[in-house]
Specification:
Layout (H helix, E strand, L loop, with lengths): L2 H16 L3 E9 L2 E9 L7 H19 L3 H5 L3 E3 L4
Antiparallel strand pairs: 1-2, 1-3
Helix pairs in contact: 1-2
């Protein structure tokens, strides 16, 4: 696993740890930018949570891409889902 893959994995794990209601999200390209294309949240956690999560995920992606631009290839077209054991 490359350092970029490890950084991506850590960033996604942090999101799922910080927000237990987050079930998953997908990243797609809109024009020249990567953006959140889907978001799944447990409905029992309030109507404001999706907007908050959209911002947090976007900020996480932006921070990752600023530090590691090559992560764009790893993000594009991916769906990230919470794993339950």
């Amino acid at each position: 696993m490359t350092n970029t893959e490890k950084a991506l994995q850590a960033a996604v794990k942090t999101l799922f740890t910080r927000y237990p209601a987050l079930c998953g999200f997908a990243v797609a390209r809109h024009g020249y930018k990567l953006s959140l294309s889907e978001l799944a949240v447990l409905p029992s956690h309030g109507a404001d949570l999706p907007a908050l999560l959209e911002g947090e995920i976007a900020l996480t992606i932006a921070d990752l891409l600023q530090d590691r631009p090559e992560a764009a290839k790893l993000l594009l077209g991916r769906t990230f889902a919470r794993s339950v054991h």
